[in-house]
């Protein structure tokens, strides 16, 4: 509790810090809402494409992640992830190996993800990456 109080007092005293934290919180909440929407609205392969794009943004082309991890993140059974990865491989978006997914064609992944990807990422760039 003391750490929270210290952080709150620091934010009260520093308008720049408060502004950055509130921008980050806005983007975080937008990402959370986009995830809930994607989980309710889109099929597994589209949600996986979205998730792979988000991971690619942060980690690059080689993603050292397992089918079990994707199943946990997407809230589906492992066989559903395997099936979705096969679809993405057939479309030459990714190459999946044991505990590794390699993004081969980001543009195709973006096309498959459609409007499930991009809004929070655009807000992140707009609000937090400004110079």
Automatic annotation (TrEMBL):
Gene3D superfamilies for this protein: Winged helix-like DNA-binding domain superfamily/Winged helix DNA-binding domain
SUPFAM superfamilies documented for this protein: Winged helix' DNA-binding domain (SSF46785)
InterPro entries documented for this protein: HTH_CRP (IPR012318), WH-like_DNA-bd_sf (IPR036388), WH_DNA-bd_sf (IPR036390)
GO BP, sorted A to Z: regulation of DNA-templated transcription
Name of the protein described by the UniProt record: CRP-like cAMP-binding protein
Highest taxon of the lineage: Bacteria
Signal sequence, renumbered to the chain: none
Pfam families the UniProt entry points to: HTH_Crp_2
Domain HTH crp-type: 46-112
GO molecular function: DNA binding
């Amino acid at each position: 509790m003391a750490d929270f109080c210290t952080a709150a007092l620091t934010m009260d005293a520093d308008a720049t810090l408060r502004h950055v934290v509130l921008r980050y919180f806005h983007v975080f909440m937008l990402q959370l809402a986009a995830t809930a929407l994607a989980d309710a609205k889109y099929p597994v392969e589209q949600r996986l494409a979205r998730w792979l794009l988000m991971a690619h943004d942060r980690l690059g082309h080689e993603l050292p992640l397992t089918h079990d991890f994707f199943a946990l993140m997407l809230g589906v059974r492992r066989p559903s992830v395997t099936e979705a990865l096969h679809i993405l491989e057939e479309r030459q978006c990714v190459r999946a190996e044991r505990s590794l997914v390699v993004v081969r064609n980001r543009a195709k992944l973006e096309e498959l993800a459609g409007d499930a990807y991009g809004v929070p990422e655009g807000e992140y760039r707009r609000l937090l990456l400004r110079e």
